[in-house]
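are you around this afternoon, could really use another pair of eyes. what follows is a protein written twice so to speak, once as letters and once as structure tokens for the fold. i want to understand how the tokens follow from the sequence so walk me through it. anything you notice is useful, everything is just below.
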Amino acid sequence: MSGQLAIVRTPARLEPLLRAHDRLTSLGVQLAMLALAVMVGAYVLEVVARYAFDAPTRWSADLVSYLLLFIAFMAMPQVTASGGHVAVTALLEQLSPARQRSASRVIAMAGAAVCVLLGWIALQETLRQASGNVRMMAAYPVPKAWISVWIIYGLASSALYFLRHALWPQTSPVQAEASL
């Protein structure tokens, strides 16, 4: 078994839930791309209105900042699922393949734990914002919870992907990179 890749199968009863998670993540990426197009449009409109017509908008800067957060946290689960996050593999590369797999699982569990902790903190803060009717300080104030909820989604979904990587690894990050 040394040097060979051990494939760990996902339990069949979880497959429908994991496929639903993957579909939700794909939808999130599509929504993030749409939001990026809206963000660029709002920014271009602001530049044209401000400099061509001397009539700046009051709302575009707020919209752009809200959409930036939305885009980041809607795309975050896909980045986590594909292993697209920044990884310094210098230490992993020094390990044997078996230890690489073990270390990768530990790292994935740590990533899941951090995302769960941060998601819990974000959830508590979002609930506080909602119950206190806290609003954004903006030209057109919106409830802050409407913005914060996307942080919870991104962190929770990423935590689930880290957990999936830890429990059912297909390859170690170093091996996957080396096979390309």
User: Anything to note?
Assistant: The radius of gyration is 21 Å. Residues 13-178 form one domain. The chain is about 70% helix and 0% strand.
